Amino acid sequence: MAITPIIVALRRHKAGALLIGLQIALTLAIVCNALFIITTRIERIGRPTGIDEANLFKVSVQRGGLPSDGEAAKARLDADVRTDLAAIRALPDVADAYVTNTLPLANSNWTGWLGQTPDGDKVGPSTAFFLGDEHTLATLGLHLVEGRNFRPEEVLPHSLRDRVAPAQLIISKALAQKLYPDGDAIGKTVYVGPSAPPTRIIGVVDRLQSSTVQAWAESFAWQTSIVPARFSFTYRTYAIRARPGRLDAAMKAVPDALYAVDPQRVIPEDDGVLSFAGIRARAYRADRGMAILMGAVCVILLTVTAAGVVGLSSFWVGQRRRQIGIRRALGATRRNILNYFLAENALITVGGVLVGALMAFAINAWLMVQFELARLSVNYVLAGIVALIVLGQASAFAPALRASHIPPVEATRS
Amino acid sequence: MLGYYFFLALRSLRRTRMLTALMVLAIAVGIGASMTTLSVMFLLSGDPLPAKSGKLFFPQLDPSTGATLRHTPMDLLDYTSAHDLWQAHRASRQAMLANAATRVQPTVSGQAPFIVQTLATTSDFFPMFNVPFRYGGAWSAQDEQRAAREVVISSTLNQRLFGGANSVGRDVVINGAQLRVVGVLDDWRPRPRFYMVVGARFSGGDTADLYGPPHDVYLPMPTGIDIAQADMQPFTCWSDGMVDPHHMTTAACAWVGLWVELPDVAARDAYRRFLEDYDDQQRSIGRLTHPKLTRMMSLHEWLDFQQVVPADVKLQTWLAFAFLLICLFNTVGLLLAKFIGRSNEIGVRRALGASRKAIFGQCLVEAGLIGLIGGLFGLFMTVAGIYAIRQQPVAYADLVAVDMPVFVLALALSLGASLLAGVFPAFRASRVAPALQLKVQ
């Protein structure tokens, strides 16, 4: 089929063709970027933390009004924590438990850095600290790839602003690779910040995500450390693994048991007891909301654009009834007419998506500056182009089909 | 004439129902999306204290010591610097403030204790930020100085503890200490919680929580230090050794903010000089050791610097307007199709003496009518959109509401947008040559 007559005909509808082309261009530009944002957010939400999340939950408690000043107070708080832990571990629905400052995704990061020399001149890789004991690996379901677990005697009481300076440390594989690219981190000595006592790396776990998903900590989200310390402070979090299938029961039993030990404590109503699924949902709720919104925008945009194509094509068909009749009378088949309108649509769409692809990259460049987004991959644009061409053809099909049914006799009417 | 055009437009719209429905729908969706995000954007980026925001300033300096040098001051001050500056009383009003989480023990038996967000501050806080009182008022400067066991509570906490009754003179037990209520705030929901915006600039745009309700408990600073010192929430600490949370007044931690009210330029300059002089003097006695980093931002600059408007909201607003633009393109295309499709009718009218201007006007009236109908549907979409946002688990959800300006703006925006979309098609229609059309007939 000759393309020239289509172009000649389009010249008579410059404005309409240009408008629908521009609309397709803008739609492509926005849909590509929206899809890109959706997949980025979904990938973020889907990242495994490295822990076994099923049957895991946390209970945060606060105990104001107790002195936490000095060694005596710390010893008393530590005794409280041991009593709490004994009570929790004794429950029939509980598999294991430990006390900590924070959990992955719980949005309360303790950060520092690990130096390889004691003088602290050279800042080492950043890391996020989790306090834990010999039950931590089992409770979280962490996979120890090298070295050993903590021993009970290595776990010391730790108050809120005690310096993190343990004798032993278990680190994530990501952190180990950052520190020792050649491998073999076990037995090496590191220093937690400047002029710190030496710390020996005794174990490496496969994967452990830090506590926050906020942008500032993204660069070291997987560089995590477990410190052998029992968090003995007025507020603290118990990480608890329920026996399989007993999560709900355990989530009720643990607060009751804790209140029985000390009725003066506070377990916050809204987020004191949370399953790990709940922690995860809270951490990523903004990402989820954004992905849904972007998805809705894409669907509506594509619908509006499709409606525009249907509207304009129908109008053009109506306008050219006489010409179609003449062509049919001169021997054009129905198929010829159908193809003509589909080709016309394809021509406009291709023009639109070419401009739209440029616009997509321009918008992405602007988003990269304004919102620190990554570079748009060409695949999204290619997918968008294919989608819009299919959409254009599908939208033009019904009007084109109607055009092909115009009888040759139309040529004689006016 | 306008009435006649209006009548013609109605008839024309009824004749091409499908096309009209498409255009109305496109405009309604575009208006709905942009008005929803615009409502949120207005709400979140508004001035929290319009009468005063240009007069409030946040003095800063760098009190940190040790090996790590800073390029910008920390978001809060150490206690010594804040207290020195505050005590000098060089501004017309000044208030120190610090965040803490404290434990309230209800006096009614059977109720479990709970944690409340607490602000330790000084008495100027209330008049300086126009904080409204329902009952009672702020504590006196004398009571503050002697660390009187007094407290101001929010209306929310008053509701929870005392069922909303006038609780002035009654007792609240916080962190085990018995405090007398001297004031109950009226409903007060600054947006954002501007007086304590700390660290937001590091959150990567995740700032929605700044729009939640303000603090529930306000303690005189010395009282707060007495009963809640260990619960204070520092911005950061810079000591290499252990920080004792029970000696926060001397700790190497930034945990106290200072706001000053400076009514005019002269006062501002004077205060800047005072801040510089204080920094120099502290340096000369060796308490401050790092290179000088003084700064004094206005409330407005501070909120900008902290990037308080959530990044997601900004992105959504841009998106919504791009969306509206596409809907407009759509409308232009469809209007063009519609008007050109009526070439015959227009040709006849032209031949009967209608001027180009008259045709142009008639087409614009039709475009405007579509815009108005689209705008009305758009309002429904806006109401639905705002309802959807209110269901979201974000701190500002309860603040978002449909109000009169949104209604007026939505209608104006859709009318303006549709007229704009109508200009080109109407112009094209008005160029239809009468003779040619009659010939074809």
Radius of gyration of chain A: 32 Å
Strand order, sheet with most strands of chain A: 3-4-10-7-9-8
Overall mean confidence score, pLDDT of chain B = 87
Spatial arrangement of strands, main beta sheet of chain B: 2-3-8-5-7-6
How far apart the termini of chain A lie comes to: 28 Å
Structural overview:
The complex is a heterodimer of chains A (414) and B (441). Chain A has 414 residues and is of the alpha+beta class. Chain A folds into 2 domains: 4-45 and 286-412, no CATH class; 64-265, no CATH class. Chain A is 50% helix and 17% strand. Chain A contains 11 helices and 12 strands. In chain A, the strands form 2 sheets. In chain A, strands 3-4-10-7-9-8 form a 6-stranded mixed barrel. In chain A, a hairpin with a 5-residue loop joins strand 8 and strand 9 (198-205). In chain A, helix 2 (14-46) packs across helix 10 (334-371) and helix 3 (70-90) packs across helix 6 (247-261). Chain A is elongated and about 105 Å long. Chain B has 2 domains: 2-47 and 311-440, no CATH class; 62-293, no CATH class. Chain B has helices at 2-15, 17-45, 79-87, 125-128, 141-145, 155-162, 221-228, 265-284, 299-305, 311-341, 343-351, 356-390, 404-430, 434-440; strands at 56-60, 93-105, 114-121, 133-136, 150-153, 171-174, 177-185, 217-220, 236-237, 253-254, 257-261, 295-298. Chain B has 14 helices and 12 strands. The longest helix of chain B is centred in the C-terminal third of the chain and has 35 residues, at 356-390. Chain B is of the alpha+beta class. In chain B, the strands form 2 sheets. In chain B, strands 2-3-8-5-7-6 form a 6-stranded mixed beta barrel. Classes of the chains: A alpha+beta (414), B alpha+beta (441).
Tag the structure with descriptive keywords.
heterodimer, A: 414 residues, alpha+beta, six-stranded mixed β-barrel, 12 strands, B: 441 residues, 2 domains, six-stranded mixed barrel, 14 helices
